[in-house]
Task: inverse folding
């Protein structure tokens, strides 16, 4: 009787009290859900072309009716044929692929499959999801990701799919317009070759970022390309890149902190003039060495060549990058005013560029030294500060922002890279530099890139000044295509046995009048948008990624057909494609370019004029349609481990 009572109670529990619960479990056991991946949003360049694509890699289920089945890659053509015959037989995965995988690796970043930490931090992620790493992919991961869809099938007792009950289409992620110029980025990357360093190019009048290149770089497609061979090849390539002692993934353009060297003399000049510490007619007698008690501070010209320059004033001191003048200029100005002006120029603060990983740098002062080192500030510290040495640290992006000011009437612009609603994002403010003072500094910068200056790779370029009206202001000369620049050779690290320290090379410049410079080339192109679009499409063939439709190919799902690797691009053909885009979309009036080249074992003492300036010249020559070094016309050698099979 007790057993019967228990059975009756259990039946009542199952059918009345918990009937709905167990009915739902039964229904769930008869349903099977298949995920439909959402298209991740893409990045578009300043001309509206995609910088990254989502490639569908199709596969067929070997047993289409089974809830779980092995898969075999197929071509798009095969997939379409199969889908008409067996609707459930075909699926696809999305593979992220970058059109400029080396030159834009650090600014765009890359995606890879989720790991344990990702799943812990975001329980909405699936094991099959991709997550943005580095660059803009990381910064805008949530916006780009979209929302997956799904198909829901009824399954029978054998676990086989029956009718489709529900289908929810995926929602694609948001695509973002950028200010980036992939053509200039490729040229900059190729010009850097195998040197370690960075190239940053800004629109000097707006702060738009056109290029942010860090070298040595990595192949961002290594993380997303599905290899034809087994996955071991991919794993080996990634491990090799990650273990590379040259720090391939380190973004030197925004995360690297370097003494700015003589480029910082421009800030010292502004600080001294604006604080009336000295005037444009103030002179210093360069005798090669400045002696202060038991210490000696030499000019680079004396150290290298044993020569002096005698009486020298500000304009010529900028042109010749004279250390003696700027030692005294820093002394007269004082560290308080110097540090304040440096911060007004943006040093010691983030530029707030949208790319993650930016460093603020360091503007040292007496309070910082006392707190950090427990020491007082000495005159020698001020001397070093005035020429961009000592504990002063900045990123290449900060230096580009500073140099751009001298091509923008003294207005400092906040760099940005996301172009949506760009008019609202432009944030430029005048630093209030007096017109006469600004003109004098610009004149010194023009002199630096002219005969008698320090940047010899640009002497012939600026020889065109001779054909301009003699009464043009320096600002107007810059607007007419004359280059204003500053070289930098910055010491760092400990001294060697001979007392020398390694040096990095820096070069910053502004150049205006670019639409005029390109006028003849642009005039030769059609004015018809339709014709230009057709010509652009034909020129796109060397970088456009196409899905292979040839089912007879050994691996018909390969997406590498139609790709020319970035290191193999024909830069002459690239320029033709670029010009057509410029014709349709325009180009900035004035560019600011900063080049950093780190020293290495082959060149311990890198110099701004010798190592960095030629790279900027190559970029300008390509832009202007002039001859570029022969080696750049050839294929760039990259590590075998990073090339795609």
Result:
């Amino acid at each position: 009787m007790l057993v019967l009572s228990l059975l009756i109670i259990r039946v009542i529990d199952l059918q009345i009290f918990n009937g709905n619960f167990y009915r739902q479990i039964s229904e769930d056991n008869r349903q099977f859900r298949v995920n439909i991946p959402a298209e991740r949003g893409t990045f578009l360049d300043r001309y509206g072309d995609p910088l990254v694509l989502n490639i569908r890699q199709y596969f067929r289920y070997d047993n289409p009716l089974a809830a779980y089945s092995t898969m075999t890659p197929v071509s798009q053509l095969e997939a379409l044929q199969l889908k008409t015959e067996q609707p459930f037989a075909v699926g696809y995965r999305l593979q992220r692929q970058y059109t400029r995988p080396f030159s834009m690796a650090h600014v765009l970043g890359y995606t890879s499959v989720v790991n344990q930490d990702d799943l812990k931090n975001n329980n909405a992620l699936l094991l099959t999801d991709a997550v943005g790493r580095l660059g803009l992919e990381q910064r805008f991961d949530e916006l780009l990701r979209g929302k997956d869809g799904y198909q829901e099938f009824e399954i029978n007792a054998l676990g086989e799919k029956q009718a489709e009950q529900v289908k929810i289409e995926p929602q694609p992620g948001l695509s973002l317009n950028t200010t980036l110029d992939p053509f200039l980025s490729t040229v900059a990357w190729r010009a850097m070759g195998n040197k370690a360093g960075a190239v940053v190019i800004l629109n000097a009048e707006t702060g738009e970022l056109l290029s942010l290149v860090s070298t040595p770089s990595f192949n961002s497609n290594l993380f997303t390309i599905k290899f034809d061979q087994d996955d071991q090849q991919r794993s080996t390539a990634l491990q090799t890149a990650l273990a590379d002692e040259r720090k391939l993934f380190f973004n030197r353009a925004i995360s690297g902190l370097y003494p700015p060297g003589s480029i910082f003399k421009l800030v010292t000049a502004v600080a001294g003039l604006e604080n009336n510490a000295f005037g444009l007619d103030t002179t210093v007698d360069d005798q090669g060495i400045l002696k202060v008690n038991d210490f000696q501070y030499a000019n680079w010209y004396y150290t290298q060549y044993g020569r002096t320059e005698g009486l020298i004033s500000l304009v010529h001191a900028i042109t010749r990058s004279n250390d003696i003048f700027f030692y005294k200029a820093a002394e007269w100005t004082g560290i308080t005013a110097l540090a304040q002006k440096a911060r007004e120029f943006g040093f010691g603060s983030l530029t707030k560029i949208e790319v993650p990983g930016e460093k603020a740098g360091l503007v040292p002062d007496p309070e910082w030294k006392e707190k950090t080192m427990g020491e007082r500030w000495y005159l020698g510290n001020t001397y070093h500060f005035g020429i961009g040495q000592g504990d002063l640290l900045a990123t290449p992006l900060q230096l580009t922002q500073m140099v751009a000011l001298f091509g923008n009437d003294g207005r400092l612009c906040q760099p940005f890279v996301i172009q949506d609603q760009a008019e609202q994002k432009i944030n430029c403010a005048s630093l209030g530099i007096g017109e006469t003072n600004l003109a004098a500094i610009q004149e010194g910068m023009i002199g630096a890139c002219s005969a008698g200056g320090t940047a010899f790779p640009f002497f012939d370029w600026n020889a065109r000044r001779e054909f301009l009206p003699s009464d043009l202001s320096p600002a107007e000369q810059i607007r007419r295509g004359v280059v204003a620049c500053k070289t930098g050779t910055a010491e760092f690290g400990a001294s060697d046995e001979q007392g020398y320290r390694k040096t990095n090379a820096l070069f910053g410049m502004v150049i205006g009048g670019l639409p005029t410079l390109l006028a003849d080339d642009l005039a030769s192109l059609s004015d018809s948008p339709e014709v230009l679009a057709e010509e652009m499409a034909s020129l796109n063939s060397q970088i456009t990624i196409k899905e292979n439709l040839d089912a007879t190919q050994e691996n018909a799902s390969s997406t590498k057909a139609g790709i020319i690797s970035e290191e193999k691009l024909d830069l002459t053909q690239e320029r033709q494609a670029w010009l057509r885009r410029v014709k349709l979309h325009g180009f900035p009036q004035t560019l600011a370019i900063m080049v950093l080249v780190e020293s290495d074992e082959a060149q311990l003492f890198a110099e701004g004029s010798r190592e960095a300036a030629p790279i900027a010249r190559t970029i300008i020559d390509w832009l202007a349609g002039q001859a570029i070094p022969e080696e750049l016309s050839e294929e760039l050698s990259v590590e075998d481990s990073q090339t795609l099979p």
About this structure: The domain at 261-461 is CATH 3.40.710.10 (Beta-lactamase). The two ends are 77 Å apart (CA to CA). Confidence is low (pLDDT under 50) at residues 24-28, 544-563.
